[in-house]
Specification:
By secondary structure, this protein is of the alpha/beta class. The chain is built from ten helices and twelve strands. The strands form two sheets. Strands 8-7-6-9-10-11-12 form a seven-stranded parallel sheet. Strands 2-1-3-4-5 form a five-stranded parallel sheet, with helices on one face. α6 links the parallel β6 and β7. The longest helix is centred in the first third of the chain and has 17 residues, at 96-112. GO terms for molecular function: glyoxylate reductase (NADPH) activity. It is found in: Cytoplasm. It is an enzyme of class 1 (oxidoreductase). Belongs to the D-isomer specific 2-hydroxyacid dehydrogenase family. GhrA subfamily.
Length: 313
């Protein structure tokens, strides 16, 4: 069994030795340009076109992240990067759910208890209690009901929040309202006080965080984007904040990363930025899952996280 690995910034040595120790019978190597030797499996993130093109003998391609938008975007720009008929498999959770719960719950409670506003008052040396939010008037809406969206929704209900999810197809999550399809998006947005984006990045969801969407939220709503920067029309967010439709936003992902030094988000008093760290791949857990999936494929079973390339997730 031959396994090739490529990642633009992960430490290759850790992954090569980790996979090798879990699959002693395999030959694991870091792919380098010009390498056309046989391979059964590929572990990749943003692979060069020549790494995978024409490798029709691959039994599986593993995307080393929760999303597969990067590699599918490459396929749209350079058709052929994904060999026809070869399964594409994404990481499922691998420790990301807990990280995302921590990040989103922290941000939600910060807005619910108005800590962001108290921080601004501290800078002004202003001692002024604010009218608290109430749970029955603070509906949380989550765009996306996949592994991460479901995990976050369930955790937020434990804090007494009314939570609703919107997704392409209806999902049944205990204690969480379910909305599905474009026809139910307006009903989902109406009454939402805090909007969390955890959608997959596909051509259909690009730019979904826009002026028409913001206009349907409650006045002075809050926005948390922890999915992809491509989902947000940045000028529309700034405009919505200027007129009071959106009171504040927490952004972990951006159209351009790192965020350019002169970008207006840096200095906006009601925008909180983090450098794409809401949930990161944990190598040891990820390697366990990759190896378990390789073993499943070798045994003739379907792997966990199999991607529907046509849908984009």
């Amino acid at each position: 069994m031959n396994i090739i690995f490529y990642h633009p910034f992960f430490e290759a040595k850790q992954w090569l030795s980790g996979i090798q120790s879990r699959l002693p019978e395999a030959k694991v190597r870091q792919w380098r340009r010009g390498d056309s030797l046989p391979a059964d499996y590929a572990l990749v993130w943003q692979p060069p076109h020549e790494m995978l093109a024409n490798r029709v003998a691959l039994k599986g391609i593993f995307a080393l992240g929760a999303g597969v938008d990067a590699i599918l975007g490459q396929q749209r720009r350079h058709p052929g990067i994904l060999p026809a008929g070869v399964p594409l498999i994404r990481l499922e959770d691998t420790g990301m759910s807990l990280q995302m719960q921590e990040y989103v719950v922290g941000c939600t409670l910060r807005y619910f208890r108005r800590m962001d506003e108290y921080q601004l008052q501290q800078q002004q040396k202003l001692w002024q209690p604010l009218q608290p939010h109430h749970h029955d008037q603070f509906t949380v809406g989550i765009l996306g009901a996949g592994v991460l969206g479901k995990s976050v929704a369930q955790k937020l209900t434990e804090f007494g929040f009314t939570v609703r999810c919107w997704s392409r197809t209806a999902k049944n999550i205990d204690g969480v309202g379910s909305f599905a399809g474009h026809e139910q998006l307006p009903a989902f947005l109406q009454g939402t006080q805090l909007l969390i984006n955890l959608l997959p990045n596909t051509p259909e969801t690009a730019g979904i965080l826009n002026q028409p969407l913001f206009s349907q939220l409650n006045a002075n709503a809050y926005v948390i984007n922890v999915a992809r920067g491509a989902h947000l029309l940045e000028c529309d967010l700034l405009a919505a904040m200027q007129v009071g439709r959106v009171a504040a936003a927490t952004l972990d992902v951006f159209a351009e990363e790192p965020l350019p030094p002169m970008h207006p988000f840096w200095t906006h008093p009601r925008i909180t930025l983090t450098p794409h760290i809401a949930a990161i791949t944990l190598p040891e857990i990820a390697m366990d899952q990759v190896v378990a999936n390789i073993q499943a494929i070798e045994a003739g079973r379907e792997p966990v996280g199999l991607v529907d390339v046509a849908r984009g997730y």
